[in-house]
Amino acid sequence: MSSIKVTPIKSLNAVIEVPGDKSISHRAAIMAGLADGVTQIDNYLPSEDCLCTLEAMASLGVQYEVLERLEGYGPTSLRIYGQAMQLNAPDVEIDCGNSGTGMRLLAGVLAAQPFQSTLTGDESLQSRPMGRIMTPLSMMGARIEAAGEKEGCAPMILGGSAERLQAIHYDMPMASAQVKSAVLLAGLFAEYETSVRQPAETRDHTERIFDHFQIDSTIDGHRIAVHGGQIPMANDLYIPGDISSAAFWLVAAAAMPGAELKIKKVGLNPTRKAVVDVLIRMGADIRVDMISEDSGEPYGDLTVIGGTLQGTEILPEEVPNLIDEIPVLAVAGALAEGRMVIRNASELRVKESDRISTVVTNLRAMGAEVEEFDDGMEITGGRPLHAAELESYDDHRIAMSFIIAGLFAEGETVVHNTDFINTSYPGFQHDLEKVMNPKPHFAIAIDGPAASGKSTVARRLAEKLGLIMINTGAMYRAIAWASIQHGIDASDTEGVIAMLDRIDLRCGVRDRGSIILVDGVDAGDALREDAVNSRVSAIAAIPEVRRLLVEKQRDYLELGSLVMEGRDIGSVVFPDTPYKLYVDASEEVRLARRSAEGLADVVSQRDKEDSSRKTSPLVVAEGATVIDSSEMTIEEVVDEAMSILKSKGL
Ligand SMILES: Nc1ncnc2c1ncn2[C@@H]1O[C@H](COP(=O)(O)OP(=O)(O)O)[C@@H](O)[C@H]1O
Ligand SMILES: Nc1ccn([C@H]2C[C@H](O)[C@@H](COP(=O)(O)OP(=O)(O)O)O2)c(=O)n1
């Protein structure tokens, strides 16, 4: 069993992307397996929990193909061949591992089958209550039996009746998305309309994924109804990052003055983002940039600026929507000023561990002041935490929450038994290392006149060093090309400026090289045509054009370390980088190089305009080393560039 050691960090500056959402991944594997047709799932969570659900579907006759995997963990992109609701009897017991969601959702499906099957799981799962799903499923006429050592617990034996399930209306005694989903999934196999009413809102991934797979359901306040006999239709889906995994980093950054953290592509389903609302109420500075709604689930980027948090009271109606985040919010409470009150959360006692008791024990071990209640706890924040040797209690979220606490505790904190982290957050340790030892991205700036060999050298260096290569000339060319498309004269500066607001300019990276789309179009070779050559320098002289593009060029550094080539990279875009080169060649040589490419480029005219313009003219930037490539081969230039960069400390 492995342990993770952490020592406090003073700052946290990173851009990370957490793995795919666990709740959606389970549902995606099940629905794609039940659907008619082939579904491609991207950003599937490659965790043990979700792998178990995938294997469960496979043992019921669903075939799948892995398109991409996270080495050492599991599939992240896959294609599932749906069975159109016709499942086969499994040969073996179905093992759900540590996953309560997997077991309860699959129970809804298996209870409805004419064959018998057994659902089992690890020791922790075999002690979690299954009565809550057995009751409604039995009401539907399902045969279902809990054969575990502990009463009402797994292994569960389900199905095997030739009779079709009967539709029921079920008033759920507790707010549980797993119970709701188990009944609705069983309802797909039942006659007539099955409905559930939840006492409070719970996560609605099942309703959303039903819609994505073209299952008609009716949602009326807290009541959800579905007609049996429908066949889900295959439909590709992208799974956004799991906000419950993002929560660990949100707390770490929000409670650390001076921190700046960006978490990209996080699922922001309104029934899941209560953790963000609570942290904002605690005074956290969190910016939410929505990107889109894909496959029925909204997602976006979260940017957190660290500061001092204040304690808060978690409202009863918030509890179901942030139940998984309570352990790390309790850590936030210990780091905050004032009191943090968590009540109405007795559900925490039947999670992967008794999370009230395990959180209280670990917080006390670190010196926090905590009072334990049957249904929650009260934390008086502000006491400095000290390092401790802690147990994870076989609970992934307890392990991760206290690793975050360790980032703030004096001394070296050790959390034992951390293997379970893989059940929800494969790659957590990698992200932890990134946060603890951030390696800032750097830029290599290459400037020079036209056809001096800048792009060639930049491309080779990027390949050798494993960096991204950004061609900024293509960005100016794209604006020049767009002005032609819009029929704007190159001398019509006002017209060009007005056009900038009208076009959708996207700068991205493909195959580690830059790509520019104007209104969704990659102009490709058209960027190097004469019409563009003859107007690009005039367009590049417009300060508004330069301001827009320089900002986009600087943004590229967020994606990783890079080699960027152009005219003003060392002087304006990245004036602070120590790695600056100026690649030159005689005009004669440059003209010859262009004509060898079959291009009648107005190289000398452009050079004149680029060097003489007022804003950011082509100059040898301060600190840049000049390489005159007139008499050198490409290999010689690249070798020379490498040795100069090494001498500058690369
Ligand atoms: N040192 C060199 N020797 C010979 N040809 C070169 C050399 N460097 C670049 N070239 C060639 O010159 C042309 C222009 O080079 P390129 O890298 O596109 O220049 P730039 O990006 O500065 O406009 C290309 O065809 C390239 O293969
Ligand atoms: N950083 C940059 C890059 C290019 N430009 C302008 C000036 C150049 O004449 C055009 C086209 O640049 P590009 O690098 O594609 O030109 P060459 O490949 O060197 O001929 O864009 C600029 O002003 N600033």
TrEMBL record:
Domain spans labelled Cytidylate kinase: 444-646
GO molecular-function terms, A-Z: 3-phosphoshikimate 1-carboxyvinyltransferase activity; ATP binding; dCMP kinase activity
Binding annotation for phosphoenolpyruvate: 22, 100, 128, 178, 355, 397
Binding of 3-phosphoshikimate, residues: 22-23, 27, 176, 178, 324, 351
Residues annotated as the enzyme's active site: 324
Keywords: Amino-acid biosynthesis, Aromatic amino acid biosynthesis, ATP-binding, Cytoplasm, Kinase, Nucleotide-binding, Transferase
CDD domains tied to this protein: CMPK, EPSP_synthase
EC number: 2.5.1.19, 2.7.4.25
InterPro entries for this protein: Cytidylate_kin, Cytidylate_kinase_dom, Enolpyruvate_Tfrase_dom, Enolpyruvate_Tfrase_sf, EPSP_synthase, EPSP_synthase_CS, P-loop_NTPase, RNA3'P_cycl/enolpyr_Trfase_a/b
Compartment annotation: Cytoplasm
Protein name listed in UniProt: Multifunctional fusion protein
Gene field: aroA
